[in-house]
Design brief:
six-stranded mixed sheet; about 230 residues; 7 helices; about 25% strand; Rossmann fold; single chain
């Protein structure tokens, strides 16, 4: 069995009496691109917020980097949950500089991540003039500042046009080639089918399926069967 960089065990999350996440046990192999799939409202974002410490689980545990989850593990993660929080009146460079100073990184790292996300030529442009795709790539650049081993992206293609989605796919592939493990959540199958090698399918707050992608299998057919209850984990 492949080494796991992250594992969740029977995660639950209640909002009052409503159970949003029910016994979700993810297994993320090191070096994989893991697609966390599910309809809108399935529990994907809630699960990722628990993994990244933005929410406390009601029950269950998280194993990260070989040990029980601790806040120090966040230094080894890069996270983009929902839309990136950016300062529109600042340039791409200045936005990254704010974060670099907060975590004590040298300015040289800013230029490295700008080159990785292909924003080096617009580093002096105010972010308010960026396209949606450029803002998403800048958000990923912020997540990459600390040289993470694990990158978590929650619905990163939301609002992107086809060209933006293609650039995002190319970026994720390039990060994977650098040895970064990626967890990518989405409800758009066409977005992830070309890049993921492992998937988990969440529906109604429950993990219905998890496994390695079979290149000969139709992901859309599998997804519909799982979500509609034809196939169970």
């Amino acid at each position: 069995m492949a080494e796991l960089i992250l594992e969740t065990r029977c995660l639950k999350k209640y909002y009052g009496k409503q159970l949003a996440v029910n016994d979700v046990s993810l297994q993320i192999p090191r070096g994989s691109i893991y697609g966390l799939l599910g309809p809108n409202g399935a529990g994907k974002s809630t699960t990722l917020k628990i993994i990244t410490g933005l929410l406390y689980p009601s029950a269950g545990e998280i194993i990260a980097f070989g040990g029980r989850w601790e806040r120090k593990h966040l230094r080894r993660m890069g996270v983009l949950i929902e839309s990136p929080a950016l300062y529109g009146n600042l340039t791409a460079y200045e936005n990254l500089l704010v974060h670099a100073k907060l975590i004590g990184l040298p300015k040289e790292r800013i230029y490295e991540v700008l080159e990785i996300v292909e924003l080096k030529d617009v580093d002096k442009k105010q972010v308010s003039h960026f396209s949606m795709g450029m803002k998403q790539r800048l958000g990923i650049a912020i997540a990459l500042l600390g040289n993470p081993e694990l990158l978590i992206l929650d619905e990163p293609a939301n609002g992107l046009d086809p060209i933006g989605i293609q650039k995002l796919r190319e970026l994720i592939r390039s990060l994977h080639e650098k040895g970064i493990t990626v967890i990518l959540s989405s409800h758009i199958l066409s977005e992830v089918s070309q890049i993921v090698d492992h998937i988990g399918i969440i529906s109604g707050g429950e993990l219905k399926y998890q496994g390695e992608i079979n290149p000969t299998e139709n992901l859309e057919t599998l997804f519909m069967e799982v979500v509609n209850g034809v196939e169970e984990q």
